[in-house]
Fold each of these.
Amino acid sequence: MNKTIISPSILSADFANLGRDVKELQDCGADWVHVDVMDGHFVPNLTIGAPVVKAIKPYCNIPLDVHLMIDNPQNYIEDFVKAGADIITFHYEAAGDLTEDIINNIKSHDILVGLSIKPKTPPQEILKYLLMVDMVLVMTVEPGFGGQEFMKNCADKLPVIRQNAPENLIIQVDGGINKETAQICKNLGANSLVAGSYIFKSANTEEAISSLKII
Ligand code: DX5
Ligand code: ZN
């Protein structure tokens, strides 16, 4: 399997200095920058939208990994593409019957597409989409907030997905990732790690990012 893709989440960044923080992540070895978009409806928190993605785009050359935790994702794809998203991940629970259409819409813009599941969604429900997407994001906390505790039972979905996936599928985990939980997820088949509070609370960003790589 290829190297692990580290995607620090800017949910834990200084929102008054996002450009600076995004540039620092890039300088400290991040592979992608993870942007958490929340609508206060699909999840009980409000964060940022496409204008903020557009604003941070000039501050980094690494891919912007946009995680949509919103209802009706089909209505917002073009906005995020125009803003500069390089990967758009949406939730299966929000898309339902529109999942395949949304996958095709995102792909038509020549960017990567990810499909995410919340803790209570069984992995079997998305197996039929594995050949259509570039990435599956397995949430290891209930989406909505940074700094929550890792749910091991969610990581147990990873082998089910890996065993049914094409070889090049990226499997990302998000929520409660630190050096120890990263190791658990990697052993179970993940090859992309999102980490927010672990990286931003650490005294040394570069060391925190590389500690997730050396596993
Ligand atoms: C949670 C978000 C995560 C969050 C992770 O809903 O999707 O990306 O920022 O934060 P930590 O790493 O602190 O759990
Ligand atoms: Zn996220």
Amino acid sequence: MVRDLSEFPIQYIKGVGPQRARLLNRLEIRTAEDAIYYLPYRYEDRRNIKKITNLRYGQIETAIGKVISAEVIRLPKGNLKIFELTVSDGSGLLKGKWFNQAFMKKNFKIGQEVVLSGVVKRNPYWGIGFEIDNPEYEFVSDDGDAFIHTSRIVPVYRTTGGLSARQLRSIMFGVLNACIEHVYDPIPQDILVRNNLHGLKESILNSHFPEVETDIAILNRGISDYQRRLSFDELFMLELGLAVLKRGKSVEKGISFDAKGILVNRLLERLPFRLTAAQGRVFGEILYDMKKPYPMNRLIQGDVGCGKTIVALMAMLVAVECGYQSALMAPTEILAEQHYINIHRMVEDLGLKICLLTGSRKDRPFEDIAAGKTDIVVGTHALIQEGINFKNLGLVIIDEQHRFGVMQRALLRKKAVNPDVLVMTATPIPRTLAMTLYGDLDYSIIDELPPGRNPVITCLFSPRQKDYIYRAIADEAKKGRQVYVVYPVIEESEKSNLKSAIIGTEALEKIFPSLKIALIHGRMKPQEREAVMTSFKGGDIDILVSTTVIEVGVDIPNASMMLIVHAERFGLAQLHQLRGRVGRGSNQSHCFLLAYEPCGEEARRRLDIMVRSNDGFRIAEEDLDIRGPGEFLGTRQSGMPDLKAANIIRDSRLLEVARREAFGIIEKDPELKGFPGLRKSLERFWGGKLELFKTS
Ligand code: ADP
Ligand code: MG
């Protein structure tokens, strides 16, 4: 009956039907295949359920008992309501507590048998008894498939209103029974053998309903041998797609830039500093790529302030010397404006033409670009919009790559015939991760800061210590240095209750009547913003109040102090980027983090690491740990397929294996002609995003 599981509607599986199918759709389960790969998010050990009296404190435990009371308790202070459920199994009592969820009461009846699980604790007042806060719960009933739900390791799936954990488990069991025989394994046999990987069918079954002797801790970490097989498949498909993308580019004919280096040398003569060894090495790698008759696709990674811009400019000059145009794309208008302000004089001094192109500028230099009169174009996404045509774009540079996805890169490349592409990022990420996120790119790293930089001193303050901060700002200004004050929002709003940049500016004007204070934010007109940035750069402004618009790339060496208001509200990567705006000159710089209460544990961790470390890699690792890989990498935005089974951090070794196998197969058979099934699975996995693959 069931043939292609990816096209078999879930509704027609026995025991589902239209009503449940609608609920399953909410979980993004539409086909039998979706269901098969809808994996449990945890497992519960119900092999031999403990007596309540034998539960251990501090452990995740599961117990079964009959409801003996279910009531809502009101605490005298505040209006906190607690729903308290008490169950008994004859050996002892177990309480479940749900905070501010009085409605839970209607779910339970006295005498019903329920399974409760969660971390067991003592009663906070009496120091005795067994309690679980917000336990997972499930009713025990004998509907004929009790063997699925008890006396075994039980899978727990994320579910949705109207579908109980138990119902969903029964459905999953049914789907597997009906479909497992029709599962098609696209991975070549020799790869499985070489890497000791289990068969697909047994791996799927065991990932849902594990064999009885499996180690539950290993299962819950997602690293049983069977789970690894499913993780491998995802990572393999991911890497296979990246291999296809990379291969597609490397066989294309590109421009061979063979410059003498006249412009670059003239630029270097004029620079007030010498390149660092790392800048020199990376520029060498770029030159080597540019000379080759294939399109360059290189990622430059380097912590904030390491000097990526000048390296980018040198690459652009190489292209220009060979008679081509270059484009530099930045993620925000402010950053594009900054790049323009910073480099246009150097570029014009060399006798070249440069222009700025952003969405909100009126004076759009379209014609000059199309006619090839402009050598270098600096801009935002506006660069990739329709109607912008270059005469002969040869080099494309994308700054702060983490803000752009694979797709946007592809669009910009289309503005030219196979241009060389350089992407730059200041988000330091571990190597294996970089391989995945930018797996279709070559990779260079500027791992050295220009000499004479002092690490920024970072301190954490509470609002009570504001006076100290104000004094420090006044002293800094007296020395002729400049200060950033960053707010999380432009305007106050009823909802957020946060200090805002507008109100903050007014307050600062009162506190520092003799200082020049200016405000900059994303809603201003670009001309106004440019004017503010230019006069801040020129030293006419003492304190620049802003929102996170200055987060990336802004470079003013004389600014040596930053105050971040509501620092508890910012993400770690953001804080590090913001702080990177100071510490760019030779003066000792300071960053003050002003945190308001209450701030949660995660926020504390973020602030803590900021105070302790200036090292972008350390901070990125911590960030990864706090946020998890999905959010850290922003895979959604980047156009990468989602991973369900695999976890790039946890499975980094497996990722390397998958990468080696995937790149190996594409090298031998670039279009997968000998693997039609694999090719089909690959296209499905990438959801039509492997454009190059389609045209080949
Ligand atoms: P980022 O890598 O964060 O984009 P920038 O390119 O903005 O860093 O450079 C930061 C600052 O360091 C700029 O003021 C730039 O002129 C300066 N700089 C770059 N390279 C060097 C160098 N080799 N020696 C001294 N200063 C440098
Ligand atoms: Mg930069």
